[in-house]
Amino acid sequence: xxxxxxxxxxxxxxxxxxxxxxxxxxxxxxxxxxxxxxxxxxxxxxxxxxxxxxxxxxxxxxxxxxxxxxxxxxxxxxxxxxxxxxxxxxxxxxxxxxxxxxxxxxxxxxxxxxxxxxxxxxxxxxxxxxxxxxxxxxxxxxxxxxxxxxxxxxxxxxxxxxxxxxxxxxxxxxxxxxxxxxxxxxxxxxxxxxxxxxxxxxxxxxxxxxxxxxxxxxxxxxxxxxxxxxxxxxxxxxxxxxxxxxxxxxxxxxxxxxxxxxxxxxxxxxxx
Length: 272
Prior knowledge:
The chain is α/β, with parallel strands linked by helices and 272 residues long. It has helices at 3-10, 20-23, 32-47, 59-67, 76-99, 112-116, 118-133, 156-167, 201-204, 221-232, 248-253, 268-271; strands at 13-18, 51-56, 105-110, 137-142, 171-176, 181-182, 194-195, 197-198, 238-242, 261-263.
């Protein structure tokens, strides 16, 4: 059995990060069919006895979809305004699709300062545990409408890793627009090789060629490597999957040879 399938089957507490590149279509607006499928997969995880926290990008894209404007995305104030509009749209969509499965969702908007401050950190943790105990699925995003450089986390890959550590998760899943980590960008090189398992993050960067990031996201493969490293500090493994593949989590869990990359820098299997 693939390590990714084994980890999915034994993990009980899962942080699921969904990138903007997964939620967007080619025009840069939100793909509701994908969002609905994510809700279906969350139900699958919960039906198999898992607790789930979602860290979701996509507020900016939803803002674009609401007012049909993207041309001023380089303007920080306009971008923050788009995120303020889009966060409402994003949560409305999650609420609708999760409600079809009888699942209640809750919104948490955070900044880096919330993780640095001990009191705020404790409050986040207590809120998360209370929501989970009540069967609610927390949906976390960075508070982009107020974040400036000093309090910005930078990317939701890292936000997901911080959340996983705070919650003491068993597994971090990063849904992206690629199958996993390649030795070079598969979008630019046909002979790119998928790295299925990673054990040594310290030497990994020297052995791969980093490609371009998504047109609609803020991160790239380096932020995912950084997130895996952060999660690894807490003995939490990370799996990168292609979130644009329908039912990708279910497929990986069933060990049907769906591609993925698993980050394992420690003896995780013996500790579960």
